[in-house]
């Protein structure tokens, strides 16, 4: 029984394929691309399930998070921070972001945002989140998310059963994000 992980001989092939799939189709907060890729790589159903369980336990809760949280460049130790072009205290600022493809709002510290972005740039992809507010606290960022949600709904945005919210134009092109 094989399990896909950083130690697997096809790990690089897997993460390259995952990065391409996300670039082409986005991530809909599932392991859809992961499962499809593992099948192509010859994994049996129980091996795919075991791999996905392993990813989830390690912080890879969806396709894009496997790349963000688990796929560090093999030449670097996993805990090495990417080199930062800016040295301000970004840990005390909060950023509210929205992804038009995924319909999701997100908030994290400015440090996490730039670290994620650097990792993605180095990996040749982007998760599509757009920052729309920079705040002094998590509460303020959360309020900014509420204000944006309200504004989107007022202008014809629709929320789905998962709480994702899309503007009508984006919903028409979101494709796989409907499930
Ligand atoms: Zn994702």
Strand order of the largest sheet: 2-1-3
Ranges where pLDDT stays below 50 over 5 or more residues in a row are 74-78
Number of domains: 2
Approximately how much beta-strand content do the residues carry? 5-15%
Protein traits:
3-stranded antiparallel sheet; 2 domains; single chain; 7 helices; binds zinc ion; about 45% helix; about 180 residues
Note down, in words, how this protein is organized.
The protein has 179 residues and is an alpha+beta fold. It has two domains: 11-70, no CATH class; 93-178, no CATH class. It is built from seven helices and five strands; from the N terminus they run ααααββαβαββα. Strands 2-1-3 form a three-stranded antiparallel beta sheet. A hairpin with a 4-residue loop joins β1 (94-99) and β2 (104-109). The radius of gyration is 17 Å and the shape is globular. The model is unreliable at 74-78 (pLDDT under 50). It binds zinc ion.
Brief characterization of the structure:
The chain has 179 residues and is of the alpha+beta class. It has two domains: 11-70, no CATH class; 93-178, no CATH class.
Write the layout of secondary structure elements.
Layout: H1 11-25, H2 32-40, H3 45-57, H4 63-70, E1 94-99, E2 104-109, H5 110-123, E3 130-135, H6 138-154, E4 158-159, E5 165-166, H7 168-173
Antiparallel strand pairs: 1-2, 1-3, 4-5
Helix pairs in contact: 1-2, 1-4, 2-3
The structure holds zinc ion.
């Amino acid at each position: 029984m094989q399990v896909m992980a950083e130690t697997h001989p096809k790990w690089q092939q897997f993460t390259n394929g995952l990065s391409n799939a996300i670039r082409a189709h986005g991530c809909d907060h599932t392991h859809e691309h992961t499962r499809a890729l593992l099948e192509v790589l010859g994994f049996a159903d129980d091996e795919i399930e075991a791999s996905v369980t392993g990813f989830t336990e390690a912080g890879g809760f969806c396709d894009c998070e496997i790349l963000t949280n688990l796929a560090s460049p093999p030449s670097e130790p996993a805990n090495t921070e990417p080199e930062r072009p800016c040295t301000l205290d970004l840990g005390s600022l909060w950023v509210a972001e929205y992804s038009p493809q995924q319909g999701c709002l997100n908030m994290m510290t400015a440090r996490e945002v730039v670290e994620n972005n650097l990792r993605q740039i180095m990996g040749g992809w982007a998760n599509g989140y757009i920052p729309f507010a920079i705040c002094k606290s998590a509460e303020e960022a959360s309020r900014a998310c509420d204000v944006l949600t309200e504004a989107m709904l007022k202008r014809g945005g629709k929320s789905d059963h998962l709480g994702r919210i899309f503007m009508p134009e984006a919903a028409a092109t979101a494709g796989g994000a409907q499930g």
